Request: fold
Amino acid sequence: MYLWEIGETVRNTLATRENVFQVPATGLEIFVVRGFLGEEECAGLIERIDADLKPSKLLADDPDPEFRTSQTCELGAADPLVHHVDQRIAAFMGMDPSFAETLQGQRYAVGQQFKPHHDFFYTDQPYWPAQEKSGGQRTWTAMAFLNAPEAGGQTFFERAGVRITPKAGNLLMWNNLDLAGEPNTYSLHQGMPVEAGVKYIVTKWFRGRRWGYQQD
Reply:
């Protein structure tokens, strides 16, 4: 399947779903589903995230120690709740679940952030050969908010002119590629610093092929 075909599949699938709102944006396909996760699901995922937090990492080294300061939890697919949420997101978007990376949880305390970045892979970077063999380019990102911090913590797409305020249960989805299946620089986004309270999210990245498969 070509990368542009994945975008078309998701676009056409979301057009058939109820309660999906396409966010007005410059040069970017971005959608919100309100109340995708229930209160108990959000609470259960927060509990699992808190149980196994580690400092969030970057694929490429960055000299700025403040670039990504959140904490991350790799959520095990064998957990019934995690598996259920994994499958629901993939099915809702019309994606093959085998194309998805492991569901990941993040916790942002006051002052923590993730500065402007793209989710797609830069093919001129040292990490690309390994990523290309194990699923290829990232296509869509799905991010679910598990709570609402007291202040701050918005997801800001500066080039697209979009700022999303966290609300518990809402699912945010965007296409990291353009209509031709090429990396879309309008997908530049940041997790803005939390100003009061704590922010929890889960993130799911989809690839162009089955994730983890080592292609020769």
Q: What stands out?
A: The mean pLDDT is 95.
